[in-house]
Write a structure and sequence with these properties.
By secondary structure, the protein is an all-alpha fold. It contains nine helices and no strands. It comes from Microterricola gilva.
């Protein structure tokens, strides 16, 4: 899969993208979104298991409950279409397993950072895709994916740890930077196929959606900056 080409940092675009052309079929979209939210919840559960105090565990458990609430709502949307959630989540299992091997960690700070940064990037992207679906379902799902889902609580915990430990800040900055490429590939995989790679139509489509990925990187940088990390 081709990694989206991005403009240099600081260069932005005001282009508004009509996602209707690139939005996948509704059920695969809902299945992938539900599977991704379940993956975030699993990562939070790993962080919960190794967190050092009951206070931190409690805060992580709250964030986990928020992510699971979103996941359950996505599953409910699938069921409302008289479809089997497992059937529509299962096709993404292998890709998520590959992503997990790259993004998982035994350190609770790194796990939280993965959930905050990657979850934020993918949440932003899937919210935009949902708006391309249109209709009542698209509006409901876009609203659902725009919710905080515990992200600010994760950021608060991370900021406190980073401010107290310069060595941790340096290692987390490196971890945050290495997440970007793999997370963008997950986002790119959600788009409907647009002609065959290498064709003029494919290159035109890639150029059209490039500003979206540029904005995802900009939002990632803002999240890193907000934590006191260098993107």
């Amino acid at each position: 899969m081709e990694l989206p080409r991005l403009k240099p940092r600081g260069e932005s675009s005001a282009t508004k993208i009509d996602f209707a052309e690139y939005t996948p079929e509704l059920l695969p979209f809902l299945g992938q979104a539900a599977a991704l939210n379940l993956e975030v919840a699993e990562n939070l559960a790993r962080a919960l298991a190794v967190a050092p105090s009951f206070e931190i565990k409690q805060r992580i458990s709250y964030a986990t409950s928020q992510v699971l609430a979103t996941q359950h709502a996505l599953v409910a949307e699938i069921r409302s279409l008289h479809a089997d959630p497992d059937e529509h989540m299962r096709p993404f299992a292998d890709a998520l397993e590959r992503y997990r091997t790259l993004a998982t960690s035994s350190d609770w700070h790194e796990l939280l950072l993965t959930c905050y940064l990657s979850g934020g990037m993918l949440g932003d992207f899937f919210e935009q895709l949902a708006r391309g679906i249109g209709g009542d379902v698209g509006k409901r799902v876009a609203t659902l994916l725009s919710k905080d889902a515990g992200a600010e609580d994760l950021a608060t915990m991370l900021r406190a740890s980073i401010a107290a430990d310069a060595v941790l800040a340096s290692s987390l900055a490196m971890w945050g930077r290495r997440l970007v490429g793999d997370t963008l590939l997950v986002a790119r995989s959600a788009l409907a196929d647009v002609d065959s790679p290498g064709t003029p139509a494919h290159h035109a489509a890639e150029a059209t959606i490039e500003p979206v990925f540029t904005e995802l990187i900009a939002a990632h940088t803002r999240r890193m900056d907000g934590l006191g990390l260098t993107a």
